[in-house]
């Protein structure tokens, strides 16, 4: 049997209304939360933009702004103090003058007031009237004005009645208050002074003197205007001086930034010529010393790179505190190349011509080595030793070494063609290449060392160079059978050699060329080196 409450339409409508109200409230809360989150995000974004703007603002402008704010704050504070002091001083002067006049008038009115001599009282009130005195009056104890001259508040004015009552009731002996009177169409500020008229401790009436505060207000206004003008003038001067000071201070900083950028780009010749004795001068001097040190280091590094490979030079400079004798086992490739028949050549030409020939050909060998990621280990008379895979690891060192050997032979052939056009004899190289394990590191003594490689692999490469004919490249069988060599190099069996300490002969292969897929590599490298040398020649002759 179904629940009758479930079939009650009124109950269902009420439940639906309740759900609708709940959903409406939830949506309202969600919308309010979303608006608050959006507003908070907008505020954070605005604050971030302001912070970024302040960070990008030049230091001179920031310094000028803060100095200007400081000057303005000081001048405004000083102006307020001066105006207050000036106003108080003038107020005191008026009070002294009003109190003095009202006391004199009260003293003069004692006897006429007792005698009820209105004529004498009129003479007294008229006698005290002047340009600075707006009005005078003598009143009885019940507040009735007996005699007056000039302007006085009406007797029925509640303000006047209240002020008079304070004297009549004996609350005070003297009383001063400020009020406004209409003079034509202008509203004037005046000050009234009241003094009881006493004769032998008997109060017979009240003397009233009203002074005009226009002079005081004019003096205060003049002082304020003078202070405003002085403040604006000083602020203007302060802004100009703060900007000049900011530029004076930040200009060396800007130059330091420019010098840092120049140093970062490798220009170590930048120097500051300013002669300053302050902290900025010390900073410039320190920067000059730093630039001088970096220039010397750059020159030493450049000179060192001419004696050792750039890779070795980088290792030395990256760890200057730990340069010592050391070595580690690596896998690399060694190339030996020397001039065939060098002894006969050296007997035929002058020593200076021989040096020029060696330098010319060794330059080509060095370019071929560097373009294939190798290192010139050393020059040995008419020969050169190249290392691949050290000091920086190279997974393709064996193939790069063979590419280097082929490129050397191509460059030598090109150079011999040029020499033939000049009716000069050709110079031919023979090259031996071997790969395998070797010891690499700093070797020698603690006082004098060099980075090199040693081991059986190196010795075999040297022997291979010795059995090679002019214009040939010979490698070991083990090297040729490497996976990254045999599929990219075309070579034929050459001959077997016997080495001391090894019972079995060593099989060798003569390298012919690279496979068609890689042959273009040598041609591209050859053209790059030829163009580079031609550009150097044109630059020297131009």
Offer a quick outline of the entry.
With 542 residues, this protein is α+β, with helices and mostly antiparallel strands. The chain has 15 helices and 13 strands.
List the keywords.
21% strand; eight-stranded mixed beta sheet; 15 helices; 542 residues; alpha+beta; five-stranded antiparallel beta sheet
Shape: rod-shaped
> How many beta-strand elements?
13
Percentage of residues assigned to helices? 55-70%
Spans of at least 5 consecutive residues whose pLDDT stays below 50 are: 154-159
β-strand amount: 15-25%
**SS-derived structural category:** alpha+beta
Rounded mean pLDDT score: 80
End-to-end Cα distance: 114 Å
Radius of gyration based on Cα positions: 54 Å
The secondary-structure element order is HHHHEEHEEEHHHEHHEEHEEHEHHEEH
| Count, helices | 15
Can you summarize the main beta sheet? 8 strands, mixed
Write a structural description.
Helices cover 57% and strands 21% of the residues. With 542 residues, it is of the alpha+beta class. Strands 6, 7, 8, 9, 10, 11, 12 and 13 form an 8-stranded mixed beta sheet that branches. It has a 5-stranded antiparallel beta sheet with strand order 2-1-5-4-3, with helices on both faces. Helix 6 runs parallel beside helix 7, helix 10 runs antiparallel to helix 11 and helix 11 packs across helix 15. About 1% of the residues have low confidence.
């Amino acid at each position: 049997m179904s629940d009758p409450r479930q079939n009650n339409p009124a109950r269902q409508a009420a439940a639906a209304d309740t759900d609708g109200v709940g959903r409406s409230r939830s949506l309202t809360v969600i919308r309010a939360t979303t608006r608050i989150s959006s507003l908070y995000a907008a505020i954070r974004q605005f604050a971030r933009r302001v912070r970024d703007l302040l960070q990008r603002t030049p230091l001179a402008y920031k310094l000028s702004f803060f100095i200007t704010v400081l000057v303005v704050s000081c001048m405004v504070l000083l102006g307020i103090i001066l105006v207050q002091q000036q106003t108080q001083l003038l107020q005191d002067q008026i009070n002294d003058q009003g109190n003095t006049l009202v006391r004199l008038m009260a003293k003069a009115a004692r006897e006429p007031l007792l005698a009820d001599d209105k004529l004498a009282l009129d003479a007294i009130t008229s006698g005290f009237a002047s340009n600075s005195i707006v009005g005078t009056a003598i009143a009885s104890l019940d507040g009735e004005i007996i005699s007056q001259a000039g302007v006085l508040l009406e007797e029925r004015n509640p303000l006047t009645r209240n002020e008079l009552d304070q004297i009549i009731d004996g609350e005070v002996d003297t009383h001063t208050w400020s009020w406004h009177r209409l003079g034509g169409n202008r509203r004037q500020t005046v000050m009234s002074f009241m003094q009881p008229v006493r004769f032998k401790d008997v109060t017979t009436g009240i003397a009233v003197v009203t002074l005009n505060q226009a002079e005081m207000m004019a003096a205060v206004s003049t002082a304020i205007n003078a202070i405003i003008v002085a403040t604006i003038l000083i602020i203007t001067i302060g802004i100009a001086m703060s900007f000049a000071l900011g530029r004076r201070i930040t200009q060396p900083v800007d130059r330091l930034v420019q010098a840092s950028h120049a140093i970062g780009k490798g220009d170590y010749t930048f120097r500051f010529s300013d002669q300053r004795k302050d902290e900025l001068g010390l900073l410039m001097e320190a920067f000059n010393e730093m630039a001088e040190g970096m220039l010397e280091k750059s020159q030493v590094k450049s000179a060192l790179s001419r004696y050792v490979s750039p890779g070795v030079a980088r290792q030395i400079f990256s760890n200057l505190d730990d340069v010592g004798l050391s070595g580690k086992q690596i896998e690399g490739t060694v190339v030996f190349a020397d001039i065939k028949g060098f002894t006969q050549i050296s007997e035929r030409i002058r020593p200076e011509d021989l040096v020029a020939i060696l330098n010319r050909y060794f330059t080509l060998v060095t370019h071929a080595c560097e373009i294939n990621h190798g290192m010139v280990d050393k020059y040995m008379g008419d020969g050169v030793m190249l290392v691949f895979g050290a000091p920086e690891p190279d997974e393709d060192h064996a193939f790069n070494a063979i590419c280097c050997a082929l490129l050397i032979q191509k460059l030598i052939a090109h150079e011999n063609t040029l020499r033939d056009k000049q009716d000069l004899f050709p110079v031919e190289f023979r090259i031996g290449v071997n790969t395998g394990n070797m010891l690499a590191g700093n070797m020698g003594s603690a006082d004098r060392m060099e980075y090199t490689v040693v081991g059986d692999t190196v010795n075999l490469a040297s022997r291979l160079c010795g059995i090679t004919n002019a214009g040939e490249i010979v490698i070991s069988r083990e090297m040729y059978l490497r996976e990254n060599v045999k599929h990219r190099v075309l070579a034929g069996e050459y001959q077997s050699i016997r080495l001391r300490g090894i019972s079995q002969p060593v099989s060798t292969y003569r390298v012919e060329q690279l496979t068609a897929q890689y042959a273009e590599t040598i041609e591209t490298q050859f053209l790059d080196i030829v163009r580079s040398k031609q550009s150097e020649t044109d630059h020297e002759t131009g």
